[in-house]
Design brief:
Radius of gyration: 33 Å
Distance between the termini: 66 Å
Number of strands: 0
Number of helices: 3
Structural class: mainly alpha
Length: 134
C-alpha cells in the first residue's frame, strides 16, 4: 500500500509543478506581450513622424511652386478650362452610349480575420494583436 501512496504523491507533486510552471509562464507572457506591443507602437509612431515630415517638405515645395504665375495659369487652364482673350477652348466629349474608361478597381485582400490558428497564437504571444498597423 505504501508503494501506491508514494505513486499518488509523486503524481500530485508533478501536477503541482506543472500548474506552477503554467502560472509562472502565463504571468511572464502578458507583461512581455505588452512590452513588445509598446515597442512596436513607438516604432510605428516614429515611422509615421518621418512620413509626415517628408510629406510636409513635399507640400512646402508644392506651395512654393503654386505661388508662381505660370503654375496658376496652368491650373486655371487644366482644371477650369479658362483661356486668355483671343484663344479658343475645345472640349473632347465621349460619344453617346459609351462610358469613359476609368481606372480598374484594385483587388481586395482576403478578410484580415481569416488566418490560421497558429498565426493568431503567434500574434497573441508577440503582442502584435495589441498594436494596429498603420
Amino acid at each position: 500500500m505504501s508503494k501506491r501512496r508514494g505513486g499518488k504523491t509523486l503524481w500530485s507533486l508533478v501536477a503541482v509543478a506543472v500548474l506552477v510552471a503554467a502560472v509562472v509562464t502565463a504571468a511572464g507572457i502578458f507583461p512581455f506581450r505588452q512590452l513588445i506591443a509598446e515597442r512596436r507602437s513607438v516604432a510605428q509612431a516614429q515611422e509615421t513622424l518621418l512620413a509626415l515630415r517628408a510629406e510636409n517638405e513635399r507640400l512646402a515645395g508644392e506651395v512654393a511652386i503654386l505661388e508662381t504665375d505660370g503654375e496658376v495659369e496652368r491650373l486655371a487652364r487644366e482644371q477650369f478650362g479658362l483661356v486668355r482673350s483671343g484663344e479658343a477652348a475645345f472640349v473632347v466629349v465621349a460619344p453617346a452610349g459609351e462610358e469613359a474608361a476609368g481606372p480598374e478597381p484594385e483587388p481586395t485582400l482576403n478578410d484580415p480575420g481569416e488566418q490560421p490558428w497558429w498565426r493568431d497564437l503567434w500574434s497573441f504571444l508577440t503582442g502584435s494583436d495589441l498594436v494596429r498597423n498603420g
